[in-house]
Amino acid sequence: SFTGLGLGVFEKKPFLQRVVETYKRVKKDSALLLSACSHLLYNEELMASLAESGFDAVLTDPFLPCGPIVALRLALPVVFFLHSLPCGLDFQGTRCPSPPSYVPRVLSLNSDHMTFLQRVKNMLILVSEGFLCNVVYSPY
């Protein structure tokens, strides 16, 4: 499922069709991740075993919200092992400006010297990120 999502980026299809297909894939994949997280959190035996293990922290990927939820449930600190948080939350949390007119989005492949069309693309990526982030993270 995740391989298909990644490979879909390279398909040569009309823009709107790619957007709709990406939305459907993301919705399906996020439901899968939410189900896995729910099964973990409601497995009382496993959660009790984790609580009794005496861990000092939870190392997790911030892209998947289940790690911080497990850490909260176990009353443990969280250590993220990525340099940024999804959906620009690191920029929002630090109030660090990231204007799309000259700061390229992570997966845009743009440099900081963009043409007008690259800036438009950058803005479209920014808008779609917000929409997709809402799809992925709102169930949590």
TrEMBL record:
One GO cellular component, as annotated: membrane
Main subcellular location of this protein, as a coarse class: membrane
Keyword Glycosyltransferase (UniProt): yes
Entry keyword set: Glycosyltransferase, Membrane, Transferase, Transmembrane, Transmembrane helix
Domain of life: Eukaryota
Gene Ontology terms, MF aspect: UDP-glycosyltransferase activity
SUPFAM superfamilies cross-referenced by the UniProt entry: UDP-Glycosyltransferase/glycogen phosphorylase (SSF53756)
Membrane topology value: Single-pass membrane protein
Compartment annotation: Membrane
Tagged with keyword Transmembrane helix: yes
InterPro entries documented for this protein: UDP-glycosyltransferase (IPR050271), UDP_glucos_trans (IPR002213)
Gene3D superfamilies (UniProt xref): Glycogen Phosphorylase B
Family: Belongs to the UDP-glycosyltransferase family.
Stated name of the protein: UDP-glucuronosyltransferase 1A1
Species in which this protein is naturally found: Puma concolor
Gene: UGT1A1
